[in-house]
Amino acid sequence: MDLLEERRDARHPVDPHRPGRGVFALLLAFLVVVAGGVYGVARYYSYCERAGDTHAPVRFTVPEGQTGEQVVERLAAAHVIRCGGVVGRFILRRSGRADAILAGTYDLTTNMTPDAALAVLTTPPKAVPTVKLTIPEGYTIAQIAERAQQDLGISGKQLLELAGSGRYSLPPYLPEGASSAEGFLFPNTYEFVAKDVTPDIVIRKMLDEFATEAQDLHLKEGARSLGFTPYQVVIVASMIEREAKVAKDRPLIAAVIYNRLAKGMTLGIDATLLYDDPTPGDGTLSQSDLQTDTPYNTRINPGLTPTPIANPGFDSLQAALHPANVDYLYYVLCGADGHHVFSTTYRQFLQNKARCLG
Length: 358
Known about the structure:
Layout: H1 3-11, H2 21-49, E1 57-62, H3 68-77, H4 85-95, E2 104-109, H5 114-121, E3 130-134, H6 141-152, H7 156-163, E4 189-193, H8 199-217, H9 219-226, H10 230-243, H11 250-262, H12 270-275, H13 314-321, E5 330-333, E6 340-343, H14 346-357
Antiparallel strand pairs: 1-2, 3-4, 5-6
Helix pairs in contact: 3-4, 6-7, 7-8, 10-11, 10-13, 11-13
């Protein structure tokens, strides 16, 4: 090294702790990458906050107990909003609506902004005018039609015609090709949207309720164990509904019906003939009525009627599935409370009839 270089080195000594140009270059590159990442995240966030161009209807249901984060993920999966994941959850938290989402069913569209979608899901729906229909146990279709016209303002005649048209089925309970839905319009209190209610909607809602109750009762399995079809059990239940006046009589009346069927005896239930009343309107049976040859006259025709004679409730269906374990073959109405007295022989029946009816 010459003297000139020694002097230059003396003026600019090397600092071992001073970063070199390579380190500065790496730091600058790192900052550029970070800035680019931040910019990319900002652009993606902006993309997630915006709406798309096309909008298709989406019916979206929020179940009870679902969290806001779960709702956001489902909104993204349904293409209602663009993004779920971390960004979707961040947008939700930033909105302050995470705990304000209401359970219910909503009409949304695809490609909404998160704010627009959350505004719908956190706004209580407007009250929709509704009407109620209460059908007691044991009503016939004709009575249901009359009550529906009175309470719902729909055509009772149309409901009666539809229910008896044979167009409805509810396998395995109401088979296809059945002439009527009698027996399967489940008695209950129903609520309908006033502007939408029609006879068809009423019938289908009552059939759906029957299906729910039938599953709870294990109607299909119970009928099989008795050696009957579900439809036949409903016929028996309809007879029980029309005959029983007090709850304790239901399984006993069921036992009488099954016992008489097993012996090939006629059922002798006048309520079946009243269903197909030869002289409709008076609600009574004359001596000549009792001799009328109709499939619903169980005094002269053995076996069950072709259809149920009413729409039974839960208790009568349960009694038809679980008859009492007794040998009774007869019963007679006895007392002001409407209870029946049961017997195994015709002689006992005549004695009970003289005592109860005079």
